[in-house]
Amino acid sequence: MATTNIELDIENITGVSDANAQFIISAQKAVVSSIPKTLMKWATSETTAGSHGGDDSPTAITLPVKTDNIIAVRRGAYAAEEAPYEQKAFLEADSGSLLAPSASYPKYFIGPDNTVIVKPDPTSSVTAHALYIDYSNVDDDSDLRTAVIYRSCSSEFGKLATSQVHTWSSPTSPVAPSAPSFGDDLSISVSSPVSPSSPSFTYTDASVSDIIQPLLAISDMASMTVSAPSYNKPVFSLSTFPTITWTFPSVPSVPVLTNSSISFSQTAPTFTPPVMSAPDFADANTWINTEEDSEMLSSRVQAIQAQIGEYSAKMQEAQAVFNKENAEYQAQLQISLQNAQLDSQDDGQVIQKHGSEIGAYQAEVNKVIQGNQQQIAEWQAENSVKLQEYGSDIQNELNVFNKENVEYQQDVQRKVQNLQKDIQEKVQSVQNNISVKKHNLDKSVQIALQNAIQNFQKEVQEYTAKLEKYNAELNQYQGDVAKEVQDYTNTLQKEVQEYQSKVALYTADLQKYQNLIADETQKAATKTQNAAYYMQESDKYYKWYQSEVMAYIQNNSKMISQTIAAQAAQQ
Domains in the chain: how many in total? Predict the structure, then answer.
């Protein structure tokens, strides 16, 4: 049956683009199962032999929908009486039982797989048919269309609420950079040059008795007042990098929402009027008009009155039974409606609890992140000062080395100049002394003296060359030391910059991670609010659906009494 208008109303109320057809079917079934079938006779359909069975093949009727709301069963033109399933063996033609049905008094029982078994077996000419409540008849033209709309809207809002439950996606926490390694401590690999030893300018070649051997002695040529400078590296050590732990609480479990529906298996009561044999008024007329026997007439009238009295008593008894069963049915229906309402309220409480757990989770995550950020900031601040102090110590030690080296160079230059001056003075003195006395020497002595002078000059030249070489080596040593200090400084600065870059990148990743956590938490909070709203709407429309069903039952309850009265009047 058409449900186009029902679908449009659902889409307009809930905002969904396409109403769920299964929700509408479920709503139709729920409506039918919630209302006594005596009030749903207008929604019946009858099976056909060609489509559903009930002829010679197959003889069993298969209902097109699974339902126990069977209004009536007939075989041909005769209504069939329902028999318990346990009596099916007595319904066979060869059973010989008094319960066996006949062509004019057929019976039926409910078989397996949603079938209706009619006895005697139907034939191709005498077919069997079942009249049942067809939920699809609760359509656009039905008085209960509003109940179907409300029930479907409740299901749609429940689905929307479930879709809003946030699936938590935990981002990967950043990895803290490992403590940096600034390489080995500074060590000067070049060795300082060794100053040349002073030559001994002692004359031994000449041996002349009348000449006193001149002695040339430079007392301070081999001594240096200032030692060669050495570079003392400063000591540097980083504090231990804090241990960063990312121990987060467990992500709150996504709540499982129940789809509130009526679980109701109670069968609606059916009024069964007592069977009464028709009074024999024709016989009474015979005794009045033909026989004119007043006594027999009185006897017949009393018999008829007794029949009517017995039928009235049975009618009252049947009505009392029906009222009792109807009271039980209404009580069970109210219990089922209340249980469904409680389930809906429980879902709202579950969503609120989930929202609270998400908030607590967010607070705990932020607490862990802020704690780790504070530890990293403290470590950075502490070691930044240490790095600055270490750079200053390196520069101070280099300044001390340069200062001592300048003093050392100045001392070397002064000693060299003094040595050269002393040598010149002593050489000149020796030459003058020799010039005075060489006139008294014979030729061989002069030759020996000349040899001594040449040897002396040779040693002076060699010593001067050693001093120059030593000065060059000293300059080279200073340059090598400065180069090694500069290389170490450059390497240290590079390592420090790289580590600072890693720390900055880690800080950025940490901020990004915190933003992702905050974003996930915000999404969870928003979706939780949406889910709570949809659950409230679902509960509201579910209550409206219950109200529609109850109003229909109450408004049409008079029909039950009218039906009883009509059945009584027909007997």
Answer: 1
* pLDDT at residue 142 tops 50: yes
Whether 5 is covered by a domain: the verdict is no
Question: Has residue 570 been placed in a domain?
Answer: yes
Q: Rounded CA gap, 32 and 549, in Å? A: 10
How many alpha carbons lie under 13 Å from residue 258 in its C-beta half-sphere?
A: 16
Number of CB atoms found within 10 A of residue 92's CB: 14
- Mean pLDDT across the stretch 353-371? 73
Residues 548 and 540: their CA atoms lie apart, in Å, by 12
Q: Containing domain of residue 404, as a range?
A: 169-257+341-571
User: For residue 33, how many C-alpha atoms fall within 13 Å in the half-sphere facing its CB?
Assistant: 19
Instruction: Check pLDDT > 70 for residue 219.
Output: no
Distance between CA atoms of residues 555 and 374, nearest Å: 71
- Return the closest-CA partner of residue 211 out of 49, 433, 530, 456: 433
Q: Is residue 208 part of a domain?
A: yes
Residue 193 covered by a domain: yes
Q: Is the pTM of this model over 0.70?
A: no
DSSP line for 194-257: PPPPPP--B--S---TTSPPPB---TTSS--SSPPP---PPP--PPPPP-----PPPPPPPPPP
Q: Give the whole-angstrom CA distance, residue 528 versus residue 519.
A: 14
What's the pLDDT score for residue 366? 72
What is the Cα 259 distance to its own chain's centre? 23
What letter does residue 286 receive in the DSSP assignment?
I
Classify 100 as helix, strand or coil: coil
